[in-house]
TrEMBL record:
<protein>
    <submittedName>
        <fullName>Catechol 2,3-dioxygenase-like lactoylglutathione lyase family enzyme</fullName>
    </submittedName>
</protein>
<dbReference type="InterPro" id="IPR029068">
    <property type="entry name" value="Glyas_Bleomycin-R_OHBP_Dase"/>
</dbReference>
<keyword id="KW-0479">Metal-binding</keyword>
<dbReference type="InterPro" id="IPR037523">
    <property type="entry name" value="VOC_core"/>
</dbReference>
<feature type="domain" description="VOC">
    <location>
        <begin position="4"/>
        <end position="141"/>
    </location>
</feature>
<dbReference type="GO" id="GO:0051213">
    <property type="term" value="F:dioxygenase activity"/>
</dbReference>
<dbReference type="GO" id="GO:0046872">
    <property type="term" value="F:metal ion binding"/>
</dbReference>
<dbReference type="InterPro" id="IPR004360">
    <property type="entry name" value="Glyas_Fos-R_dOase_dom"/>
</dbReference>
<keyword id="KW-0560">Oxidoreductase</keyword>
<dbReference type="InterPro" id="IPR051785">
    <property type="entry name" value="MMCE/EMCE_epimerase"/>
</dbReference>
<keyword id="KW-0456">Lyase</keyword>
<dbReference type="GO" id="GO:0046491">
    <property type="term" value="P:L-methylmalonyl-CoA metabolic process"/>
</dbReference>
<keyword id="KW-0223">Dioxygenase</keyword>
<dbReference type="GO" id="GO:0016829">
    <property type="term" value="F:lyase activity"/>
</dbReference>
<dbReference type="GO" id="GO:0004493">
    <property type="term" value="F:methylmalonyl-CoA epimerase activity"/>
</dbReference>
<dbReference type="Pfam" id="PF00903">
    <property type="entry name" value="Glyoxalase"/>
</dbReference>
Amino acid sequence: MIEQMHHTSVVVEDLAAAVAYFVELGMELEGETTVEGPSVDGLCALRDVRADIAMVRTPDGRNRLELTKYHRPEAVGATDAPVNTLGLRSIMFTVTDLDDTIARLRPHGGELVGKLERYENAYRLCYLRGPAGIIVALAERIG
């Protein structure tokens, strides 16, 4: 049986930029470390792994995001995949002020994927692409 979901992991090119982006969003840096060695190689099914990891968490402490920068071997993949690409595409956060959040994330590389939209009388929503192509879905409750 599952006890809890511990974290989601995202591979990034620029760890400092990714940490700054998520801290600006409102997450808190929990810690940073470097991982390497035979157990990391075995876990990842790669050779000679060396990676820096930063763990950020939501203010309530319930959810974590692991941001990983691979030094060895070099990371692979596209950073501009559309929102309907198979696999993990977005991480959603509820925010108190959507316009303010977008404005604060733009200097950190946040770009709207589509348009800011209203969903019924429940939410204002948008997708914002950030460092390493990470798509952050943002939702502001209405009413």
